[in-house]
Design goal:
The chain has about 250 residues and is of the alpha/beta class. It has 7 helices and 15 strands.
């Protein structure tokens, strides 16, 4: 997973601010989107950005008006970016972790120390992305099993032309064989077995394989030598299918 984190740096010391910004700019997976010399301006800048516009905030702690800890609490309440503190005062470490800071860099720190904190931020971001990603849909089955006489027979979905309902039985007409398979089940149960993306019930007695339809004439469907009717209660669903091609 390739992740680029959008970052801001906040520090009221120009040299310290410049150093953090230079470290961000030299790190391939970080992008500097804002630099501020006090917490109030940082908060204004964040509000001007679109939601989710910043992933990580590198914050000094001791600043006038709004210090880094106070700013971090505000950001946490609004679901803002992750925080890495950069400070000359190690006694704030406990407070830093109370606001769920990712890391705590004590000045003067070098690039190696900064990179470790940035790498931790990327790992958290990738974990969050993975957790938020929708689960992959299970692969669609390519066959079903039908009880035919006294055995279970595997039938490829691609081989089915159409299915005919005969009271308590279904008759499955196949492309590969002139002889249809007869299975003890209702047409409704068969309909539930077949993927709706590939099969459609067009009549109380018929389900058709959509990719096997050769022609449509008024309210009939042609599949091979068979002409199958479209029932009144299935006209709307069949019309929706046809609208994709007209």
């Amino acid at each position: 997973m390739s992740t680029v984190l959008k970052c801001i740096a906040v520090d009221d010391e120009p040299l310290a601010l410049g150093l953090v910004c230079s470290f961000i700019e030299k790190t391939p997976f970080l992008e500097l989107v804002g630099r501020y010399d006090n917490g109030v301006e940082a908060l204004k800048g964040l509000h001007a950005l679109p939601p989710g516009g910043v992933d990580v905030a590198f914050l000094d702690i001791q600043m006038q008006e709004l210090n880094g800890l106070e700013l971090a609490r505000v950001l946490a309440q609004s679901g803002g970016p992750r925080v890495v503190f950069t400070t000359a005062f190690s006694q704030y470490a406990v407070e830093g972790y109370r606001v769920d800071a990712l890391d705590y860099l004590v000045k003067p720190f070098n690039y190696e120390e900064f990179l470790r904190a940035a790498t931790k931020a990327r790992a958290y971001a990738e974990r969050d992305q993975a957790a938020a990603a929708p689960a992959a849909a299970p692969p669609e089955e390519d066959s079903i099993f039908l009880k035919v006489e006294y055995q279970l027979v595997r039938v490829l979905l691609a081989d089915i032309l159409y299915v005919e309902g005969l009271k308590d039985y279904v008759k499955v007409h196949l492309k590969s064989s002139p002889r249809a398979l007869l299975s003890l089940m209702s047409l409704r149960a068969m309909e539930e077995k077949l993927p709706a993306r590939r099969f459609l019930r067009i009549h109380r007695s018929f389900i058709v394989a959509l990719d096997k339809i050769e022609a449509v004439r008024r309210l009939t469907v042609q599949i091979g030598d068979a002409t199958l009717p479209v029932g009144d209660q299935y006209k709307e669903a069949f019309g929706q299918f046809l609208s994709r091609w007209t």
